[in-house]
Structure formats: structure tokens, C-alpha cells
Design a protein that fits this description.
A five-stranded mixed β-sheet has the order 3-2-1-4-5, with helices on both faces. It has a five-stranded mixed β-sheet with strand order 8-7-6-9-10, with helices on both faces. It folds into two domains: 154 residues, Nucleotidyltransferase, domain 5 (2-Layer Sandwich); 174 residues, ATPase, nucleotide binding domain (Nucleotidyltransferase, domain 5, 2-Layer Sandwich). A hairpin with a 4-residue loop joins strand 6 and strand 7. The protein is 44% helix and 18% strand. The two termini are 33 Å apart. By secondary structure, it is of the alpha/beta class. The structure holds 5'-O-[(R)-(carboxyoxy)(hydroxy)phosphoryl]adenosine and zinc ion.
Length: 345
């Protein structure tokens, strides 16, 4: 069984083909970074137009790379939310058009579910597992109990962690996106030089907050007259260390809640763009080790947005017969855990 997956929810135009033996047959990601960089963030109109102009070619390249045609495909999946509505409409409309023309099932995939299930594609992880989902728009701790079955333990009350990286990078005069830039700068820095806050650390719940940390970075930068590259490196390293402490503390709490509910559960998974960060991966790997858990972090290119994760989530749904009608409307907001409501993150 082969599924085509389309991702257009933010600033990557991506298409991929995966099969039910967990093989990625093709995975094409076209980044719009260069187009957004002058604005220091994703501009929705630019993004939607770029998706329209490039998606057909990206799908054709994926089929070519896999040496497959639509006749080999069992279903067409598209990220249908949450995300920027312009981009979502482009991907969902393309997927529906192919599905209609080829009489194939259409699967509307939740972008967060695609991140959440990636560890099953890459490592064959069994349910249930504990997931730390950290991206540009989200920062959540979830118990993944099955396809479509998620229990949210905590979320951010203000900024997402990737957003904190992006905004702090801007304050440090680093480029966009901020995550990789801060990681690079931090490599040569002293993480102990600036005493930045650890918001929410020690709190009894599993929620996050990053707005105060960003403000602290602003004050720290202002406190250094004419920052040198070495000052910037120390600031970046101090910021990254603060984020690492917070993520480790919150995840530690979540491990306890997870084990209470699922004593048999043994895996901690990290997903989303921020999971590309090596220092943070190491911190969370240590949390898993201390708690006797297996730690799974997908390869970097499957952490940031891609089509393979959408194709895989679509395949998991298709296997269970959970397909969608061609009247399915994209959802700019679409929480994974309906019980947790539409709170931020
Ligand atoms: O999952 P993703 O590609 O898109 C969203 O769904 O948001 O995540 C993008 C986010 C950006 O905020 C980016 O700065 C962050 O992931 N990011 C990183 C790293 N690489 C990407 N953050 C920290 N360290 C990195 N190496
Ligand atoms: Zn994402």
C-alpha cells in the first residue's frame, strides 16, 4: 500500500510517497525560506502564492523520484490543518482533485498528528508513547494512545518554543529561521554566562511559557554595550540552556503522568522542527535514560515539515478505513486533543 502525502500548511511545499512497510519512496521538500527571509518571518500571501506555483511540480518530482504513477497509489493525503489557510487550501484542493480524477480515497491529515506519528514511520514505535511536540507554532506534551487518540498533558500559555527561538534570534541580530542560527551561534558560547529565567520550572502541571524568556533575552542584549560575536554566542548558549532546562523539567513531570496512566509505556518521542536541535535532543535523551525509557528522535529532515510524515499519517488512517469526503474544509485551528479545547499551542 502506497500513499501520496502533500504538505503546504506553512512555508514548505512538500510531497512524498511512503508504503506500509515503512519505506519512504520519495520525499521532496521545497523550502520558501529565501522568499520569507527579507521579512524575518512567514508572510501568508507570499506563502500561498508560492504553494500554488510549485506544488504540481513538487508532486511530479516525487512520483518521478519513486518511479511511480498515480495508478500505483492507494490514497492521497494532505495536511488539512492547523496552519495558514491559504496554503492549506492549495494542498487540500490539489489532493482532492487527484483523488476525484483517479477515484482514490482522500485523507485529511492533521499536521500535528503527522509530526506525532513520524516515530512510527522511522522507528516502528508502538502505542502508547509520550510525545514532546516542539515546533514553530506548537509546544505540547501528549500521550499518543492510538491513531486519532491523543491526551494532552500540557501546552504553552503564550509562545511556542520555536517562536521563542525565532524571536530571540532576531533580538540577537541572527538570521531567520532562528532555531538553526541560535544552535550554530551557541556552539561556541558559554551557557552559564547569562542567568536567564526558567519559566514554569517546578510547577505541578506540564504547561510551558516562553514569553518571559524572550523578554529576558531582550534585557540581556540591552545590557551588553556593542555585543561582540562572543557575547552573542554566550547569549545564544544561555538561551538554549534555559530552554533545555525548561523542556527537561516539564517532560520529567509528563513522564510521571504518563507512567501513572500507562505503566507499560516505555518510549519518549520528540518531534517537530525544534527537535532538530542537538543540545535539546541530548537533554531529553537524558530524561528518558534516567526514567528507564527508550528515546526516539526522528532524523532531522523528518523533524521539520515534510511530506513523508503526512503520507505516513494518511496511510495509518487509510489502513483503519478513516478516509474523508471531498467536502472536508481545511481547519486553520485543529487541536489534537478535542477535550483540551482550542487553547493556544
Ligand atoms: O515543525 P516546523 O518545521 O514547522 C512548524 O510546524 O512550525 O518547525 C519550525 C520551527 C522554527 O521555529 C525553527 O526555528 C525551529 O523549528 N527549528 C529549530 C531548529 N531547527 C528548526 N529550533 C531549534 N534548533 C534547531 N536546530
Ligand atoms: Zn510542523
Amino acid at each position: 500500500m502506497i500513499v501520496l502525502g502533500i504538505e503546504t500548511s506553512c512555508d514548505e511545499t512538500a510531497a512524498a510517497l511512503v508504503d506500509d512497510r515503512r519505506r519512504v519512496l520519495a520525499d521532496i521538500v521545497l523550502s520558501q525560506l529565501a522568499e520569507h527571509r527579507p521579512f524575518g518571518g512567514v508572510v501568508p500571501e507570499i506563502s500561498a502564492r508560492a504553494h500554488v506555483e510549485t506544488l504540481d511540480g513538487v508532486i511530479a518530482r516525487a512520483l518521478d523520484a519513486a518511479k511511480l504513477g498515480f495508478e500505483d497509489v492507494a490514497g492521497i493525503a494532505a495536511a488539512a490543518g492547523p496552519g495558514l489557510i491559504g496554503g492549506l487550501l492549495v494542498g487540500v484542493t490539489a489532493a482532492k482533485a487527484i483523488a476525484a480524477a483517479r477515484s482514490l480515497p482522500f485523507i485529511a491529515v492533521n499536521h500535528l498528528e503527522a509530526h506525532a506519528l513520524t516515530a512510527r514511520l522511522t522507528d516502528g514505535v508502538d502505542f502508547p508513547y509520550l510525545l514532546l511536540l516542539v515546533s514553530g507554532g506548537h509546544c505540547q506534551l501528549l500521550i499518543v494512545e492510538g491513531v486519532g487518540s491523543y491526551r494532552r498533558l500540557g501546552t504553552t500559555i503564550d509562545d511556542a518554543v520555536g517562536e521563542a527561538f525565532d524571536k530571540s534570534a532576531k533580538l540577537l541580530g541572527l538570521g531567520y529561521p532562528g532555531g538553526p542560527e541560535i544552535e550554530r551561534a551557541a556552539a561556541g558560547g558559554d551557557p552559564a554566562r547569562f542567568a536567564l529565567p526558567r519559566p514554569m520550572k517546578g510547577r505541578p502541571n506540564c504547561d510551558f511559557s516562553f514569553a518571559g524568556l524572550k523578554t529576558a533575552v531582550r534585557h540581556a542584549v540591552a545590557g551588553v554595550a556593542q555585543p561582540t560575536p562572543s557575547d552573542i554566542a554566550d547569549l545564544a548558549a544561555s538561551f538554549q540552556a534555559a530552554v533545555g532546562d525548561v523542556l527537561a523539567d516539564r517532560t520529567e513531570r509528563a513522564v510521571a503522568a504518563f507512567k501513572e496512566r500507562h505503566p507499560e509505556g516505555e518510549t519518549l518521542v520528540i518531534a517537530g522542527g525544534v527537535a532538530a536541535n542537538q543540545t535539546l535532543r541530548a537533554r531529553l535523551g537524558a530524561v528518558a535514560a534516567v526514567n528507564g525509557m527508550r528515546f526516539v528522535a526522528p532524523p532531522l529532515r523528518l523533524c521539520t515539515d515534510n511530506g513523508a510524515m503526512v503520507a505516513w499519517a494518511g496511510l495509518e488512517r487509510l489502513r483503519l478505513g478513516r478516509t474523508d469526503g471531498l467536502d472536508f474544509a481545511p481547519r486553520p485551528r485543529w487541536p489534537l486533543d478535542a477535550r483540551a479545547g482550542a487553547a493556544r499551542g
